[in-house]
Amino acid sequence: MPARGRRGRTRARAVTAALALAVAGLAAAPASAADVNNARNAGFESGLSSWTCSAGSGTTVSSPVHGGSAALKATPAGQDNAQCVQSVAVKPNSTYTLSAWVQGGYAYLGATGTGTTDVSTWTPDSSSWKQLSTTFTTGSATTSVTVYTHGWYGQAAYYADDVQVQGPDGGGGGDPAPTKPAAPGGLAVSGTTSSSVSLAWNTVSGATGYNVYRDGTKVTAVSGTSATVTGLAASTSYSFQVTATNAAGESAKSATVSATTTSGGGTVPKGDLPKHAVTGYWQNFNNGAAVQKISDVPSAYDIIAVAFADATSTPGAVSFSLDSAGLNGYTVDQFKADIKAKQAAGKKVIVSVGGERGTVAVSDTASANNFANSVYSLMQTYGFDGVDIDLENGLNPTYMTQALRSLSSKAGSSLIITMAPQTIDMQSTSGSYFQTALNIKDILTVVNMQYYNSGSMLGCDGKVYSQGSVDFLTALACIQLEGGLAPSQVGIGVPASTRGAGSGYVAPSVVNSALDCLAKGTGCGSFKPARTYPDLRGAMTWSTNWDATAGNAWSGAVGPHVHGMS
């Protein structure tokens, strides 16, 4: 979704081998017994000592950290990519493995001055720690290389930690070898479904990763302090332990926790929500689009997402204030009455959390509880039917799952939960947004991915598709449809007009063709799905205001088509 007063970011993302690298990461090659980490202050425990960051862009923080008690935070500006560098002593004619753990916005890692081929690797936005790794070989006269990290111009801050230049000792005095970490403490169950259990635990100083054990058998390894174990049987009890790891080895196992999966069942019914629905975002601000009251939103919209709730000073908590001044004197009482009138007409009105500038962070149990409590309070105050998750700066799947399940337990089975991830967020089931959607599949209403402000992306057939075409809509929707979401939980999100997004607008006729292609196998472009999905939920647009500015051309064409799907 866009920011208040201007369009959202218009990142063009390449999806060739670079994207595959970004999604999957690279595993570091094993080091020999004589190899050392030649990087100094590799974990930023001594501030920025040995590091130099461009334009004052870097600082150290105590959270989030991957290992130890500190990490680098570097914030790009319009003309600065927040590059932080270190000169590292190396031996000539030697091979080194360069690696680092990164989180946050776009992050790059590389080495120059190698005397042979300089190297680099990168990853797009990541809400959890991810390891980047590459290798290089020094030239015959090379005794030092420059190692760097950087972000991307004008994008979100990135974090880096535990940098390694692993190889023969170059004599520059790297950090001392690590010792085995302690066993993790605080292991707790943060959520359950009929087929999964979510876990969280405390950070262990010096750890670079964690292993998760189910009934004594290792089932996964993660870099952060949370994990979701999937593929479990319904109504079954399991025991779990975790260990901490680093280059020195693996810790002892933590204390055991037990959890029982739920009994299963289908998606929770959502009252009188139609089988095929249209979602529209309503702007609680004036950015040049038509100013509307809730009562002005056309009846073609079945779900109206009020944009946006804002972060507060309490971690995880959100608040909402009607912009009466910007909305021509629209009062809170009128707003509440209009919501009731829409509900009486069978519509749902929900509050959207996030947007391009949204800074809501749900990263632990306390903030998850704060999120659930504050959203439920807004539902009671204004009469909202649920919540939309539109966090474009990343989310933690473990704790967002916990937050939404807590909200569901308060609001009951009629709760509406929608999500609006960006295209990059739904390229793989390992992504944090996709994980969250699967974790809450039994209470999730619909995922309306934003098929705009994107660039080329991979479809479910492994081919690259460009935004602005029917193939882009259908081939990317196929990833969700074949990745575990029910067809009724998949919608197509597009701008209502050319002014509603920086890029990616398609005519309503293209949206309708994409819906027909997925639901009936007709109207397809070059991509045709292997099977049809007649229960496909429908479509979404940003925004009802931009739709109104264009004479409601979008809802006038797409609305009847969605409601006419058999």
Can you characterise this structure?
The chain has 566 residues and is an alpha+beta fold. The chain folds into three domains: 36-167, Sandwich (Jelly Rolls); 188-261, Immunoglobulin-like; 277-564, Alpha-Beta Barrel (TIM Barrel), CATH 3.20.20. The chain is 19% helix and 29% strand. The protein contains nine helices and 30 strands. The relative contact order is 0.11. The model is unreliable at 2-33 and 265-269 (pLDDT under 50).
What's the topology here?
Blueprint: H1 17-24, E1 36-37, E2 52-53, E3 58-61, E4 71-74, E5 84-89, E6 95-104, E7 107-112, E8 119-123, E9 126-137, E10 144-150, E11 158-167, E12 188-192, E13 197-200, E14 209-214, E15 217-222, E16 226-229, E17 237-246, E18 249-250, E19 257-260, E20 277-283, E21 303-311, E22 318-319, H2 332-344, E23 348-355, H3 365-382, E24 386-391, H4 397-411, E25 416-419, H5 432-439, E26 446-450, E27 457-458, E28 464-465, H6 470-482, E29 490-495, H7 508-520, E30 538-542, H8 544-549, H9 553-563
Parallel strand pairs: 20-21, 20-30, 21-23, 23-24, 24-25, 25-26, 26-29, 29-30
Antiparallel strand pairs: 1-11, 2-5, 3-4, 4-11, 5-10, 6-9, 6-11, 7-8, 7-10, 12-13, 13-16, 14-15, 14-17, 17-18, 17-19, 21-22, 27-28
